[in-house]
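Attaching the record inline, Q. Sequence:
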Amino acid sequence: MKNIKKIYVLLACTGYLATGCNKSLLNTEPHDRYTEETFWRTPEAAAAGLVSCYSVLRNDGMYGGKGSNNATALWDETLSPNAYNQTDSYSFNTVASGAVSSSTGGIVVNRYKDAYTGVGRCNTLLDRVDGVPGMDPAAVRKMKGEARFLRGLYYFTLASYYGGVPLILEAPDNDKHGKLPRTARELVVKQVIEDLDSAANMLPVKYTGGDIGRATKGAAMALKARVLLYEASDLFNTTKENAKWAAAAAAAKAVMDLSGTGYDLFTDYRSLFYQANENNKEVIFDVQYLFPKQGSSFDLICTQYNTNAPLLDLANTYYMKSTGLPISNPASGYDPAKPYEGRDPRLTGTFTFPGDIYKGAKIDNKRFAITGYGMKKYSLYDSIAPPKDKADLKDGQSEINFIVLRFADILLMYAEAQNEAAGPDGTVYTALNRLRDRIGMPHFPAGLSKEEMRQEIRHERRVELAGEGLYYNDIRRWKAAEIVMNANILKYDGTFIEKRVFNADRNYLWPIPQTEKDLNPNLEQNPNY
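Structure, as predicted:
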């Protein structure tokens, strides 16, 4: 999908859907810009309109890449006990520390705004594309599928962080939509599922060539599985309906069984996240970056700014490789004098630490002084010295795609949902042991109870997906945030950084931004903000 970014650059230059045209005395149509009415006239314009729906994924409120020194997708990890954003970039540490309010800016404002920008662009395409002259019906169907997938993703983002939001399913019209009240969250999620089901029916199983990276049937099905997993979890499944877990398990299993995709685990965990291995068999959907047209700042953030610095609590979570036991277990084989030796290989595949080899040199505790740790995942930097032309990447020069959905997560979704629905049967063990086989660790012990398996699955999600911005949503949906977030955060050596606070009466959802309430007084605020 790298060629789509080239279209986007041209799109930006033409001023897509500009609305500020001045009418001449003769009321002639302007020729130096597009309006809503003049844009949707050719198949090429429709294709560019679809690219604009994708491009919002790189906005600062979504996964980032367009703003200065922005790496939103990496900063999402700092909302959790896994990492720390010392400079409070984009107000991430304000949220993590429990000080968030309706007047908080940064991510709280822009996630809401940018998700709705995406919704509006998708709605416009869905309303307009049927009327574009010269369109091939098969192309129209596929475009609608992609737009429905993206609209589902944008609305799922809104529902996950803010709860119910105004549900708008037509092209933006401020007179009609500007004062709408919030729609119940359940209805928003119902629409997300409908969009994803429609997308799955419209989209191909895979693409080739320059179309690789577009939403596929598998991507729609995988996102549906994530949505259903969230809906089955304690935060939203307040009546503990077992059928919701069964539905989530079935949705994940459908992705696992989908023929023609080639989905599987990539051979090497660390290499999965290298640019050279982008769009590999484990990737189901990702956000595409390409310098100089649409790069990110992932490398700059990881190696220089260190504003996604891993914390001691995450480091202590990784088991010992040979025994498969936590380091707190006396039988694990852990040596406090050599704390990083013999650990789960995903530790060294995710971050670096004092005494490690990084960029061809041994580092001390001052190299990443904020916590002593530096994130490697989603950065090209690792143990070997980088080539000279990549040694000091700056703002917007990184090109590694950010993976939104990958097959390992599907295996974990299935294991979690199936365990909750039916207990730790053989299929749960099989799914989880595939992850262990990749890293050469012992299989999960037989005979675990449902509760014991639940804890092992939650641990496995944390270490497998660390650095990918998912753990914050996991601890919220499990209603565990009020426990794990009310804690001190520590450097590699146990030095105190700060105490975080999580108010269970309000912090499971973010506030509706005050800027949005100023525009629309009918937006009811979330409780206790």
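DSSP finds 20 helices and ten strands in the chain. Confidence is low (pLDDT under 50) at residues 5-28.

More tomorrow.
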